[in-house]
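Minutes, methods subgroup
Present: GH (chair), OT, SY

1. OT presented the first of two proteins processed in the latest run. Sequence and structure tokens recorded below as shown on screen.
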Amino acid sequence: MLNFFKYTLLLFCFISIHAFGQVEDKVYKDHIQSVRIFPVGAAFDSQLDASVISMSDSRPLMLFFDDLAYDPELYAAKLIHCDADWQPSQLKDNDFLPTFNEFNIQDFDYSNNTRVPFIHYYFQIPRVTKSGNYVVKVYANRDENNVVLTKRFMVYEELFAVGASIVPPSQTSQRRNSQQINLAVNYSKGEVMDPNSQVKVVIRQNQRWDNARFLSRPTFLNESSKTMRFESFDGENAFSAGNEFRFVDLRFIRATGVNVASVEVLDDIIYAEAQVDRPRPAEIYSQYLDLNGQYLVNTNDRPGGNPEIESEYMLTTFRLYHPQSSNPVYLLGALTNWGKNPEAKMQWNAEMRVYETTLLLKQGWYDYQYGYKDGNQFSTEAFEGAHFETENEYEVLIYFRNLGSRYDQLVGYVYLHPNRRRL
């Protein structure tokens, strides 16, 4: 009977740890807006950087979000350590944190004379003692079941030496519209007995997870030099290069920014309409500056102020002129969490013969594209085209699980930005 009780207790603990399932970036409440997490730097565009820091990084990793409310709420944050596949790991809280794993979010500012009142919260992610994938979970009133948002971030240690480069795809048919990432990993500093099972490689493009590549086996493995090379000939590590992102400039309310058709300022809300877009798969490649699918919060109406609390919220409508299709059309980019937010799915307007959707956006500069859903991924080529010359950003993440270990270490990280062009 005692053994049965112990078994039941262990089973309950196991279920409790893994009941959360695969954790993703998600906002659970409509009144929570503009959720971002990034390492704060001296440059204004640091808010475009990926939520990845080194164990020795001096920059703080900060979480920002707005609550469309008049009065502040009691919000708390908790960190969840995850394996390479974003399932909660078997680590206990005290394995990766020197303190109790519940942090009150006490720093906030009220919006300053905005039509839509909001409270701007900011929270510095506490330092952790283990590398790997993490999720910060924010919940209200100390009730962990009352989750308002979850946001991913990564912490890496420089243990494995990693080299990576963007090259023309191995497959001739992809040469004009794809980009391939070749990489080499030296694991001499780790106790690697079986590289094929202990080492995992992930490549992602423009901070997207829906089309990330999880490389299974190296193309070449040299155990004497402890080197793995990933130079696939079957397109496993090739990405559609896509096109430079479309953008809309919402930094003005008294004038129309670039690609904005109209702005209507009322006493309690601001309406904006982006210019009607058209598909461009057959257009020749045109180089211009973009944010690679991200967005910047900023306002030009109040120069010298704090854009985080002085930027207005605007109900912004996007329209795409395209024949009605049985395949739903999605608005993609960080502004819709890469197609996962409900507003990402566009609706057919029979009167105007366009697809359209309306988002509540904080003043700033927003990148976006249009696409179809293909399984768990999104494909943009039918609307945007694809060109090898397109400037994209890539990240290579190397995970390692030591023998007998209970978690995946993030032991290598490379950020690729050849021909980097930002606003």
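2. SY then presented the second protein from the same run.
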Amino acid sequence: MCFYHGYSEVEYDLTQFDEYLEQIRSQNNIKVKHDRFDSEDPSVSIPYKKKILINDNHATSVVPSFEYAHEIGHILLFNDSQKLYGFSELVTGIEERAAHLWALNAFYYVANQNEYIPNYVDAMVALGLPNSFEPLLRKVWSQYSDPFAVN
């Protein structure tokens, strides 16, 4: 899982992110069911029912925490939608992009509070995101960055 030249696979402890997502899930009464389907089948959310079905067998480089955050994003952002949303690594479509941004903002919130992911490239590696996410990550990181901070 090497996305940038010079970066190798790195393990990050996403426990705090998972705990934050669980807090959001609980506060919003979102129901989650885990199952094992075909590896090509993504996790899905049904916003108007506040339900998420996680495919624990989904073959993707994206860490399960981000996929879960993405599905929570669909429920919180589109709670009146009658649609069924399936996780996609593509950054196309308004609803997919919005769910990706919700998940990235949630991740940034936790990372910033704990100061454990210093830049967006490390975040991409930590979350197992493909290169197509780079513009979204840069957007999230730059909107919160202090341009006058001295590192």
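Chair's summary of item 2: The chain has a mean pLDDT of 84.
Next meeting: continue with the remaining queue.
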